[in-house]
Amino acid sequence: MAPAEFRPVYHPAGHDHGLRGALQELRTGRWLSMRDLLESTPDWALWTQRTQVLATAAAGSDAVDAWQAEEPLSVAAIIMHARVLVERAVRAHREGHSRARELWQEAWEGCRSAAHATPPDPVPWICLLALAQLDERQRLQEHRLPPPGPMLFPGPWGLLAEADKRDPYNRETYHRMLQFVYARRAGGTLSEAVDFAQWAASSAPDGSPLHVLPLYVRVERYRREHGHEKALDLHWVTEDGERDAQRALHRWFHRTEPAARSLLDLNHLAHALWGSLQFTDAAPVFRALGPYYTSVPWAYRTRTPDDPAGAEEVFLRARSRCLTAACTPARGPHG
To answer: What is the rounded CA–CA span in Å between residue 302 and residue 99?
Structure first.
C-alpha cells in the first residue's frame, strides 16, 4: 500500500488476534471465547491486559454474570466479575451517577472476594488501585499510607505492593497509581506525577513498560498547558524530553518482544521521538504499530482533541515524516 493510501485503524485488541475474536463474540453476548482465551493466557502481564480490555467491553452487558452463573467456581469468571464491577463503578463516578457510591462499595467487595479466591493473582489488587482514584480526598486509611521513598506522596502504597509482589513492574499497576496521583484533591500536582514516574522507571528492569511511563506524564503536562495550539515546540525539544524518549526506546522497545508491546506505549514513544525531532529513531516504532494507532496522544496536538479525524491527521503526518527520514541517506559534510 502506498503511503498516501495508508489509513490507520483503532482496535482495542491491537495485534492480539485471540483477544480480537473474544471481543467480537462478547459484543454479541457470548462468553465462551472469552473463557477459552483467558484459560490459555500464559503469563500475568498478558492476563492483566486481556482482562482489562474484556471488562471494558463487558461492562455494558450481562455476559460475565451469565458465565459466572454457569461456572461459579471458574477463577477467570471471578476475576472478570470483579473487573466489570470496577469498570462500572469508575464510569458511574466519572458521570456523577446517583448510584456511584453504591457501585464503588460493591466493586470493593468484589475485589476483596476475588483476592481471597485466587491469592496469586495481581488483578484484584490492581482493581483496588483503580478504585482508589475514586477516593479523591483520601478518606480511607489504605489510600494515605506513607510513601516508600522521598519526593513521593501518601497513597495506596500497600495495594501497589500487593500487586507488585504478585507481578513485579506490572504495567497497569503503575498506570493505575498514576491515575490516583491525578485524582488527588490534596495534591495531584504534575510534579508529583513526574516524581512518581521517574521513581518507577528508575528501578524497572530492561524490557519493562515502566520506562515509557515518564512519556505519559509529559503528555499530560502538555495537555494541561494547552500545548496543542503549538507545533513542534520547546516542550518536547529539551534535554530531558529527548532523554526520556531515548530511555524508553533503548530500555523498553529494543528489549521486548513485539507481542508484549502495548499499542498505547508504542504510540506514546512514537509521539515523543517525533516531537523531539528524533525522526529516524521513531521510524521502527511506527513500523511496529503496523496498521494500528490510538488517538491519544496525537489528539492533544490538535485544536479539537475530541475529534478523532484530527488525531489521525497528526499521526499520519508524523508517521510520514519519520518513515521518509529513515529512507533518506545521510549526507556528508560536503552534501
So the answer is: 35
